[in-house]
Specification:
100 residues; mainly beta; Folate-binding fold; four-stranded antiparallel sheet; two-stranded antiparallel ribbon; 1 helix; 34% strand; binds zinc ion
């Protein structure tokens, strides 16, 4: 069984978790000031990376908290999990994401 390391609870079985989509999305500060295309991209456009991508996960049947994970979409292997607000552990920027 696949185990996912919740940053708050430790390793738990995968059925306790829910995938929340792409991580590190930034909501425009003033939505009324962005173009319709920018707003549409924020709401609906997501990366669909083949390989390592940063995702938001929720320990829905555990502590209930959200966290981020680096997962390889080709192998379903979790490379790292980290709390929301912490930087991406590989220190590299995702495509389209500003470097920190
Ligand atoms: Zn948890």
């Amino acid at each position: 069984m696949l185990l996912i390391n919740c940053p708050y609870c430790g390793e738990r079985p995968e059925p306790e978790f829910v995938n929340g989509g792409q991580a590190h999305l930034v909501r425009p500060r003033r939505p009324a000031d962005v173009s319709t295309q920018e707003w549409t991209d924020y709401l609906y456009r997501r990366d669909n990376t083949r390989g390592v991508q940063a995702e938001r996960w929720r320990h829905a049947r555990g502590c209930g908290r959200f966290f981020n994970a680096l997962r390889d979409t080709t192998t379903d292997q979790f490379l790292a999990t980290y709390k929301v607000g912490e930087p991406r552990p590989d220190a590299g920027a995702a495509p389209g994401e500003p470097r920190r």
